[in-house]
Amino acid sequence: MYPDLETLIDLQRLDQEIAELSSRIDTFPNQIQSIEKQLNDFIHAHEERKQHLNANQRERRDMEGEIQVIRQKISKHKDQLYLVKTNEQYRAMLKEIEGEEANIRGIEDRVLEKMIESEELQKLVTEAAGRLDSEKARVAREKAELEAAANTSKEERDHSVQERQELAAKLSEDILTHYERVRKGRGGLALAEVREGKCMGCNVLLRPQLYYDVRAGEGLYECENCARILYSRERLSTSAETEAETGGPQAVAPN
After folding, report:
1. Using CA atoms, how far apart are residues 15 and 128, in angstroms rounded to an integer?
2. Which end of the chain has the smaller Cβ count within 10 Å, N or C?
3. pLDDT tens, 114-154?
4. Which pLDDT belongs to residue 237?
């Protein structure tokens, strides 16, 4: 097989690897941010519940204090019952006492509601406090795993970039320029396989002579429709078998 074609096939494979690794690397910051947000949201919710519980307890204390004030008023009014001069004053005093007692019952109902709410909040606060350390440990572990994976991917990409530079140096400037131009204009793929008489890059039928020339693998040929450099997988297989028998280097087909 034409040596430059083998080099171009390897170059495209590396470009695809580099693109995939770069895409993967770009996802790591968002993934790390996402798990950090999970912990921050957990802590924020925990702090809000604690504040709500404290507010609940303050409200209960205030209402219980209000009840004490009203009871003192009731006690004072009962003492004043013996001092009133008329039945009308006596009935008015009794009505005021009844109103204050009804007020106490209403406040006590609200206190009971706050107590039930407090029990539920206390349960949530206790559970969250027990989970907080494990949540911090989980997030730290997952963050470390993501950072390690990001570093590994960066190392793999650096290695592929170095290998790509070495391969590109083997090509003439004209061929490399053509490859780069087509790659940028064709979604990152400058080479396309031929199969059943078609360019698989654009799915257009090739002229029979061009198809034959590509399958022969003795030079560089491009699709007359999409300008991609063409190769035959059948020819790659044949070339690899021949080189294996002779101990020569094997061409690597793109993934």
Report:
1. 48
2. C
3. 999 999 999 999 999 999 999 999 999 999 999 999 999 99
4. 52
What percent of the chain stands above pLDDT 70? 91
Quick one: tokens of 137?
């440990």
CA pair distance 23, 33, nearest whole angstrom: 17
* Number of Cβ atoms within 10 Å of the Cβ of 65: 10
Strand order, beta sheet including 191-195: 204-205, 198-199, 191-195, 229-231
> pLDDT confidence of 251, banded at 50, 70, 90?
very low
State how far Cα 11 lies from the chain centre: 31
| 229 beta partners | 191, 222
d(CA 160, CA 103): 80
pLDDT band at 155 (very low <50, low <70, confident <90, very high): very high
Half-sphere exposure of 226 (CA within 13 A, CB side): 24
Structural domains in the chain, CATH included, are 19-168 (1.10.287.1490), 173-246 (no CATH)
**Residue pair 30/150 in contact by the 8 Å Cβ criterion:** no
Give the C-alpha separation, 31 to 23, whole Å. Answer: 13
> What spatial distance separates the first Cα and last Cα of the chain, rounded to whole Å?
18
* Integer angstrom CA distances of residue 58 from 93, 101, 133, 175: 32, 23, 28, 79
Residue 94, burial from CB neighbour count under 10 angstroms (0-12, 13-18, 19+): middle
Distance CA(25)–CA(35), nearest Å, equals: 16
User: What tokens does 91 get?
Assistant: 């009935």
